[in-house]
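Chains adopt folds. We examine one example:
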Amino acid sequence: MTNKTLDFPVNLKEIKALDFLTVTSGVVPTSETIKLYRPDTTGFFGGYNLINKNSNEYIGYLKVYTTDKPEAWRFDSNNEIFCAIELVQQDIAVWDIIKIGLKEDVLIGFIGQNFHYKKGQTIYADFGKYDGTFWITDGKISKLEIRRINKE
């Protein structure tokens, strides 16, 4: 069985440059960071509520790890590493193809031979440095979460 080697699911600079995007931000509680990738640097986990400013709809939540000091951390920081993204609207895709509304069979084709299983209407997939959870409604992705994880 061959696993796909995948780069970062999203490009932080590209997301931050989206014309329709506005955000609110805050520090991510420690309890939500236990399984996330933690670099060997001093920093903290921050999070962005992603909002479509044209429709005023909540798109999802992006978690990053930053070496900035909390009081100096800003949206235009270049010192961030992707940790996780949760999406509930189709405005943003991960790996340029996976987004809300995508058909389940296309998702399964993308996952390929990577370890995955379906429990009820939820698909869990292992992408090596990342894991994914995909909620399926009427044969399409209705919510997704991708996390960069610590693997021993």
In short: The helical segments are 12-16, 104-111. The chain has a mean pLDDT of 91.
